[in-house]
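Um, can you check?
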Amino acid sequence: MALSAEHEQRVEAAAKLIASLYDKAVAYTNVVIIAGYAAFFAVWANTKSYLGKRETLWAALLVLISILCFVSWETAKMYITATSLKNLRDEVLNAAPETFTAKLDQLKLAEARLIMKLLPVWRIIVGVCVVLGLSAGAILINGFLRELIY
């Protein structure tokens, strides 16, 4: 029985650590992705006259799909997290004083477990957003280099 309790403590500690690391990774990744979108539009504004119609449309389509994936994910994540935490928060706030600390710990663990469930989906979404965004950027670079070389 002691092994099971020790194992459960390790799982809880790992879940909390992963949740903390995930929060930091998400914040950093969001800044980088948003900066990438801003850079794309700044470069596009200065190079679109060097692009053909098809290149312009492909670049716009790729970056639009990337942005839609990013915004859809962030919106869905916000809704899932808010709904889950609201239900748990209500339990904590309505807890008797003697069980408040235990309920608060349950809330933190539930949040960490939710983040662990979201992590694999987040990796896929970030990958899709980055690949599509970089592909759109490559189209701009191609048009720009073509004008420089020829």
